[in-house]
Design goal:
Blueprint: H1 16-34, H2 37-45, E1 50-56, E2 62-67, E3 74-79, E4 85-91, H3 107-120
Antiparallel strand pairs: 1-2, 2-3, 3-4
Helix pairs in contact: 1-3, 2-3
The protein binds zinc ion.
Length: 124
């Protein structure tokens, strides 16, 4: 009689969390695949801001806009008379935002980097 046990192959069980993560990453991959190159590059490498407009408010403060020539996103800033930012927001072109995916971070951004590299380099 042998006491040796035979290792049974363990079946990998996915938790609900892992299933949700996999589904989300599939959605992010689909989103990345459908983005234009300009949108994908800006999402992955950040915008290439250029001065666009500047004007004065009656109270002495300023409104300025910065424009990303690559994707056409505008950054709109209200500055006080000392140049301190009072408020800021972005005006994105249609199709730039990830509808329904929320903020992209962590592994989401990793997928964007891979998608970005694959547009210019044969890295498969
Ligand atoms: Zn941009």
């Amino acid at each position: 009689m042998s006491t040796a046990t035979t290792a049974r192959p363990r079946r990998r069980v996915r938790t609900d969390f892992e299933r949700e993560q996999a589904a989300r990453l599939a959605q992010v991959q689909e989103f990345a695949d459908e983005l234009s190159e300009a949108f994908l590059f800006c999402r992955e490498m950040s915008h290439t801001w250029q001065p666009h407009t500047a004007s004065r408010y009656p109270d002495g403060g300023f409104r300025r806009t910065l424009l990303c020539p690559r994707c056409t996103t505008q950054r709109v800033q209200s500055l006080d008379r000392f140049g301190m930012i009072v408020s800021s927001h972005y005006d994105y072109p249609d199709g730039y935002l990830s509808a329904g995916l929320g903020h992209l971070a962590g592994q989401d951004r990793g997928l964007l980097r891979l998608a970005s590299m694959s547009r210019r380099f044969d890295i498969a």
